[in-house]
Design a protein that fits this description.
The chain has helices spanning 2-34, 57-73, 102-116, 120-123, 167-179, and strands spanning 79-84, 89-94, 146-151, 154-162. By secondary structure, the protein is of the alpha+beta class. The protein has a domain at 57-184: Haem-degrading domain (Beta-Lactamase, 2-Layer Sandwich). It has a 4-stranded antiparallel beta sheet with strand order 2-1-4-3.
Length: 186
């Protein structure tokens, strides 16, 4: 008798679950039929998240390769540094025979270019004078040889070259690197 009672209880529970499941399915179907076509839009509110454009690792490699080829063409021993929008190092290549100061110089030029969104040759004029100036900001170097990488109207990276006897040569090498990806920046 006890086993028949257990079976009746089990059958009753199964029927109850089926009834609840059916009701839930029916509610979901009714809700989806009543919903407007297209995705629901949340009320607009200030966003706590932003998206930024970044230079890919592949693009940084293309820049460095093109810059190294330009340096070889000009018979220059240089270092090339690429930094991201935050000024953090993304890639550095020290060419054969480049001096010990070239890596630091290239990094600081790249940092300066991305920080101000301008070639470092254009910024050098603002770094003069006897009092405090932009030259006092850590990690900057206001010598020609740094160019910004821009996408969507804003700087996303900086390219710096150090080691040539003139900053204008460093900058022409950095510009050759930028030219290698210029049509891919959007």
């Amino acid at each position: 008798m006890k086993s028949i009672k257990n079976v009746k209880t089990l059958v009753g529970m199964t029927a109850g679950v089926a009834l609840v499941g059916g009701a839930v399915a029916m509610s979901a179907a009714t809700a989806s039929a009543a919903a407007p076509s297209g995705p629901a839009k949340a009320p607009s509110a200030p966003s706590a998240v932003s998206q930024t454009r970044v230079l890919t690792a592949d693009a940084a490699m293309k820049v460095a390769d093109a810059a190294q080829k330009e340096a070889a063409k000009q018979h220059q021993r240089v270092a090339i540094a690429i930094v991201d929008r935050s000024g953090d190092l993304k890639l550095v290549v020290k060419g054969d025979g480049a001096g010990p100061q070239t890596v630091e110089s290239a990094k600081r030029k790249a940092y300066t270019a991305v920080a101000w969104g301008q070639p470092t040759s254009k910024l050098a004029a603002n770094a003069g004078g006897n009092g405090p100036s932009v030259r006092d900001i850590p990690n900057t170097l206001f010598l020609a040889g740094g160019v910004p990488v821009a996408s969507g109207g804003a700087p996303i990276a900086g390219i710096g070259v150090g080691g040539a006897p003139q900053g204008s040569i460093d900058e022409s090498i950095a510009q050759a690197g930028l030219n290698a990806i210029a049509n891919q920046l959007g």
